[in-house]
């Protein structure tokens, strides 16, 4: 008899749900040997297992329908197997319950992929990177493998894009130099994994292996897919406009955005404007109502501009803490926070909402509606040198640019003041001469 604890059954079901992209439900291989219990499952593009201590006296191996774990209602379940028949017993809300099931054939599960010969320790932040990049990946296959997440050993980063939004997370020392493509799965954001402090990583020819505590996730490598050069679209122009969004402004704007009106085309466009301060606004196309938020605590440097982008892209940047914004003509918006770089396409001029002062005329930038076409490269891409952003409050570059702009403005004002004094001096001499003429 094998006892599967309540917490283990619940956690395993939750992890499988986050990994499963197709039906039917896969079977679960239950293995008990010595003092260990292992549950494993093979799905489309991913294999997973969990290994925990267990007081098992004799080795047992059998296939259990996943529906059995779903039926136990979060209770500990006792499983007894005799040849091809099994019985699951647990304590339900209305008393003891029993469920008979047929033990599946061993070939219904398949072989668990072999682990790499060596697994290297890595920062637990790799789990967050895989999760957030997985959310940025496309949902459907395309010409480029945009439904995949790129793990680049040479560039030490994780990257994903859906052609309108891209996310690059850097700073990982990986035990391989290649660039590989793996499925984009939401499993790495689940609490069963994020709570683990010891994470190891490695790869075989066919799989990327991630071991987080007692959990093992094996992602099938897409060797045929091509991935675009996402880092190549980051503006390198020194004349770009720079915004440093204050954390309090970011929190208030993020809370306000869900209540803002949607545009009639369903894009949900918002306008970001820099001119004597920073403003964000949206318009209700039906009523003409304009909602505006002034980022009064934030700083900016560089030329004035107006640009429109999707509200969800702005919200994503703010939620990731990417508060250092850069924008250059004919380039997408770039938002950074330390090792995270978010790239979002901008919308056409028709989506731009003007402020309450009609006399204000700021030339709208030409915009890109897609991150692609980008030069397709082999999976071993080394992104170019990135802009040196930080994640602690406002970026130092933003502060430096703002100080430079302020000093330049002060010099201009001082020059104008000197000119005004000279004009007053000349006018004084004219008045003195006129007064002398009148007296004589």
Structural write-up:
It contains seven helices and 27 strands. The chain has 440 residues and is an alpha+beta fold. The protein has three domains: 2-108, DNA Polymerase III, Chain A, domain 2; 120-155 and 168-224, DNA Polymerase III, subunit A, domain 2 (DNA Polymerase III, Chain A, domain 2, Roll), CATH 3.10.150.10; 231-400, DNA Polymerase III, subunit A, domain 2 (DNA Polymerase III, Chain A, domain 2, Roll), CATH 3.10.150.10. Strands 13-10-11-12-26-25-24-18-22 form a nine-stranded antiparallel sheet, with helices on both faces. The chain has an eight-stranded antiparallel sheet with strand order 5-2-3-4-16-15-14-9. A four-stranded antiparallel sheet has the order 1-6-7-8. It is elongated and about 130 Å long.
Short overview:
With 440 residues, the chain is α+β, with helices and mostly antiparallel strands. The chain has helices spanning 6-19, 66-71, 125-136, 191-194, 247-256, 311-319, 396-439, and strands at 2-4, 27-33, 36-43, 46-53, 60-65, 77-82, 85-92, 95-102, 120-122, 148-152, 157-161, 165-170, 179-183, 199-203, 207-212, 215-220, 227-228, 241-244, 269-274, 278-283, 290-294, 299-301, 305-310, 324-327, 333-337, 340-344, 376-377.
């Amino acid at each position: 008899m094998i006892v599967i604890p309540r917490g283990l059954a619940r956690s395993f079901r939750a992890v499988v749900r986050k990994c499963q992209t197709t039906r039917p439900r896969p079977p679960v291989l239950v293995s008990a040997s010595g003092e260990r219990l292992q549950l494993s499952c093979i799905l489309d593009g991913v294999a997973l297992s969990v290994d925990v201590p267990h007081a098992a006296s004799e080795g047992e191996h059998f296939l259990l329908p996943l529906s059995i774990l779903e039926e136990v209602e979060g209770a500990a379940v006792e499983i007894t197997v005799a040849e091809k028949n099994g019985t699951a017993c647990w304590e339900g809300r209305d008393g003891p319950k029993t469920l008979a099931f047929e033990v599946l054939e061993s070939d219904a599960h398949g072989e668990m992929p072999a682990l790499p010969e060596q697994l290297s320790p890595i920062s637990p932040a790799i789990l967050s990177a895989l999760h957030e990049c997985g959310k940025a990946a496309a949902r459907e296959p395309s010409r480029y493998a945009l439904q995949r997440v790129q793990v680049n050993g040479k560039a030490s980063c994780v990257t994903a894009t859906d052609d309108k939004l891209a996310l690059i997370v850097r700073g990982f020392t990986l035990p391989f130099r290649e660039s590989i493509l793996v499925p984009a799965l939401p499993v790495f954001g689940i609490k069963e994994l994020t709570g683990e402090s010891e994470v190891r990583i490695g790869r075989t020819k066919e799989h990327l292996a991630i071991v987080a505590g007692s959990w093992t996730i094996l992602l099938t490598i897409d060797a045929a897919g091509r991935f675009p050069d996402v880092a190549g679209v980051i503006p390198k122009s020194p004349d770009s406009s720079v915004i440093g969004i204050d954390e309090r402004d970011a929190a208030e704007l993020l809370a306000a955005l869900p209540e803002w009106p949607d545009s009639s085309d369903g894009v949900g466009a918002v306008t970001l404007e820099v001119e004597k301060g920073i403003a964000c606004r949206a318009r209700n196309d039906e009523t003409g109502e304009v909602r505006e938020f002034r980022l009064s605590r934030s700083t900016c440097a560089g030329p004035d501009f107006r640009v429109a982008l999707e509200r969800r892209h702005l919200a994503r940047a703010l939620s990731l803490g990417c508060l250092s914004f850069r924008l250059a003509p004919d380039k997408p918006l770039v938002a950074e926070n330390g090792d995270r770089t978010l790239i979002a396409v901008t919308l056409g001029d028709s989506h731009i909402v003007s402020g309450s002062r009609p006399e204000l005329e700021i030339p709208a930038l030409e915009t890109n509606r897609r991150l692609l076409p980008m030069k397709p490269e082999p999976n071993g891409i080394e992104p170019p040198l990135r802009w040196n952003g930080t994640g602690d409050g406002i970026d130092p570059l933003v502060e430096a640019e703002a100080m430079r702009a302020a000093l330049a403005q002060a010099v201009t004002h001082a020059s104008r003041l000197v000119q005004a004094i000279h004009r007053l001096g000349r006018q004084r001499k004219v008045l003195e001469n006129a007064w002398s003429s009148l007296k004589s």
